């Protein structure tokens, strides 16, 4: 019985109709639950949607906890202790907590209910486990982890160096080092909001050089992920 439950709640196989239906239902519940977040005003309909969906999420959470030993291929109690601390289980828990009325009432006194309410956005991440395509992308990320971490280090180094340079070259335009970090990050992504910018010729030259470097750095993750995705698709 437990094994069958595990087969159903996991990503469906081609010949498992029950699991496929479960995935579709959960995807529908997740996305319909995100709709109320696009509105400022509460309504009876939205509250009803939230109550029903969170009840389903709680059942799903405990079913996955119940079958943790099958997930980790280990019948020891360690599996049940390990599961609540896994990334996806934490996402599940954080997406459930905002809808618990007692918790909401407790936080209203602190005027942080809106912050807690935004945790419901995390429910969109629950959909990741029900999509095979997203599972492939996650696997690509795992396989390309070392290369992506290297690019991350390169980007952080670029931001810090550029920030230090522009902070000393343009002291009048950048009042704090955080302003310089912000500018370097925007330059890295070549977005260019224009709220903070250099005014001297040297500062502008540094901006041009950093923009070209930013294009190269931003392009690296895209190439790594694309190559990994094509490799993963080819092995399926």
Notes on the protein architecture:
- The protein has helices at 2-9, 17-34, 44-66, 68-71, 78-82, 87-96, 101-108, 113-118, 123-126, 132-143, 145-169, 177-188, 201-235.
- With 236 residues, the chain is mostly helical.
- It folds into 2 domains: 2-130, Up-down Bundle (Four Helix Bundle (Hemerythrin (Met), subunit A)), CATH 1.20.120; 145-235, Helix Hairpins, CATH 1.10.287.70.
- Helix 2 crosses helix 3, helix 3 (44-66) packs antiparallel against helix 6 and helix 11 runs antiparallel to helix 13 (201-235).
- The chain is elongated, with a radius of gyration of 23 Å.
- Residues 106-115 have low confidence and may be disordered.
- One of its GO terms (biological process) is action potential.
- Keywords: Ion channel, Ion transport, Membrane, Potassium, Potassium channel, Potassium transport, Transmembrane, Transmembrane helix, Transport.
- It holds the Pfam family Ion_trans.
- It is a multi-pass membrane protein.
- This is Ion transporter.
Strand percentage lies at under 5%
What is the name of the CATH class of the largest domain? Answer: Mainly Alpha
| Gross morphology | elongated
Question: Biggest β-sheet: count, sense, barrel?
Answer: none
Number of strands: 0
- Structural class, please? mainly alpha
Spans of at least 5 consecutive residues with low confidence: 106-115
Number of helices: 13
Membrane topology: Multi-pass membrane protein
Domain Ion transport: 20-229
GO molecular function: voltage-gated potassium channel activity
Subcellular location: Membrane
């Amino acid at each position: 019985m437990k094994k069958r439950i595990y087969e159903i709640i996991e990503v469906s196989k081609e010949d498992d109709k029950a699991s496929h239906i479960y995935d579709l239902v959960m995807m529908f519940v997740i996305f319909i639950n995100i709709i109320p977040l696009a509105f400022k005003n509460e309504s009876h309909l939205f509250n009803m949607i939230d109550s029903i969906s969170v009840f389903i999420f709680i059942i799903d959470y405990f079913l996955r906890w119940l079958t943790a030993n099958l997930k980790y291929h280990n019948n020891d109690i360690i599996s049940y202790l390990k599961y609540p601390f896994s990334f996806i289980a934490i996402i599940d828990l954080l997406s459930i907590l905002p809808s618990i009325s007692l918790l909401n009432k407790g936080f209203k006194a602190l005027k942080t209910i809106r912050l807690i309410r935004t945790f419901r956005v995390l429910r969109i991440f629950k959909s990741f486990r029900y999509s095979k395509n997203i599972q492939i992308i996650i696997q690509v990320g795992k396989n390309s982890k070392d290369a992506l971490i290297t690019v991350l280090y390169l980007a952080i180094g670029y931001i810090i160096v550029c920030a230090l340079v522009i902070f000393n070259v343009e002291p009048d335009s950048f009042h704090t080092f955080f302003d310089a970090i912000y500018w370097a990050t925007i330059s890295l992504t070549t977005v260019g909001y224009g709220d903070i910018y250099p005014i001297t010729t040297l500062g502008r030259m540094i901006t041009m050089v950093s923009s070209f470097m930013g294009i190269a750095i931003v392009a690296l993750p895209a190439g790594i992920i694309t190559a990994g995705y094509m490799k993963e698709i080819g092995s399926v």
